[in-house]
Amino acid sequence: MIHSIGLVEFTSIAQGIECADIMAKTADVNILVAKTTCPGKYIVLVSGDVSSIQQSVNAGIELGAETVVDSFVIPNVHPSILPAISGVSTLKTIKTLGIIETYSVASLIEAADAAVKAGDVEPLILHLAFGIGGKSYTILTGEVASVKAAVEEGSALASAKGLLIRQVVIPRPAKQLIESLL
User: Fold this and answer.
1) Which of 17, 38, 88, 150 could form a disulfide with 83 if both were Cys (CB 3.0 to 4.6 A apart)?
2) Which residues are paired to 33 by β-bridges?
3) Is residue 97's pLDDT more than 80?
4) Residues with Cβ < 8 Å from 65, sequence gap 6 or more?
């Protein structure tokens, strides 16, 4: 089980690939994702122990310099985050929808992690900048009060970075909407 992750997001694909190499060589980390996103950005997501991830992310930030869009190190990532990134959801009941939309992949993953830790909610999906102009969003579900608290917590984190686009809470979503999201 993966407990800690770090990510660096770059405006340059070539620089991102070079940084992925230095990130893997700097510390004992595993590259979970190293790929392009829209619009022509590159992300590198690593796992390992916290100090190795911090060294790796710092190396990527240093080499990436002005091409770095955003980054994070999450020492104790919630177990539901990585499956949601992969699009693997086993949820059967959706009571309320909470949506957080951001300008970067890194800020969205951080916001989603903070949100699921803040309230009794589950991520339905984390959509990471593919085919949506570089934006990212998460959809969370749970009881209304929990979703509101979770969305506020996650949104505050993205807002503090200046990367929050919008937050929305939808109590009792229409059945057709739920079907279109699944």
Assistant:
1) 88
2) 45
3) yes
4) none
